[in-house]
Amino acid sequence: MVVAFIGIGSNLGNRAKNINSALDNLGSVSGVRVVAMSSVSETQPQKACGPNYFNAVAKIETDLEPQVLLGVLLKIEQLLGRQRPFKNAPRTIDLDILLYGNRIVDSPELIIPHPRMLERDFVLNPLLEIEPKFREKFKDVCKR
């Protein structure tokens, strides 16, 4: 099993319920186990519009390959009503693979580590909360 970190955000509807529903759905997927969840923080949209976000990070163990995990996350987003009418539109749920072990993925559909992860306090703070030695463990991957 590989340890991966998933960024979670919601700024439409019942944001707390959306995050909990996303975690419940993720935890019910064969080959995925939710190991830890950060606290939820409220943040203003960055380079986006709409209401404030609730953000968190989940630590999972998975035997799914990154592209398969991405497909699972997209299906959960769709199930929870995510629509994409325009870039950076408000969303019921947003699920991003931040890290997948020490793997680097660079394809048109998926980039790991998440390319803007280190620029976003709403990602870094919850990540450090559940993985305090994240910078040491993943320094080689996050140099890109």
Briefly summarize what is shown:
The chain has helices spanning 15-27, 66-79, 121-130, 134-137, and strands at 2-10, 32-37, 41-43, 53-62, 94-100, 105-106, 111-112.
Can you tell me about this structure?
There is one protein chain. The protein is built from four helices and seven strands, in the order βαβββαβββαα. It is an alpha+beta fold and 144 residues long. The strands form two sheets. Strands 1, 2, 3, 4 and 5 form a five-stranded antiparallel sheet that branches. A two-stranded antiparallel sheet has the order 6-7. A hairpin with a 4-residue loop joins strand 6 and strand 7 (111-112). The two termini are 24 Å apart. The mean pLDDT is 90.
Keywords:
144 residues, alpha+beta, two-stranded antiparallel sheet, 4 helices, 7 strands
